[in-house]
Amino acid sequence: xxxxxxxxxxxxxxxxxxxxxxxxxxxxxxxLLPDLNHAKExxxxxxxxLDLLTDKRVKKIET
Length: 63
Hints:
By secondary structure, the protein is an all-alpha fold. The protein has one domain (3-51). Helix content is 73%, strand content 0%. It is built from two helices and no strands.
């Protein structure tokens, strides 16, 4: 894996970890469920990370 891709994956993981930590705090301390849209955004980040790792993204052809 190239250094650039590794940095991008690391950045995605840091963001996702922070978002999940915030959701966990809401569940534990405030006894609240996270906003559904917020959860969907984190899921989208996980999907983007999976695409990056599997390199199955459709690359756009520049014209």
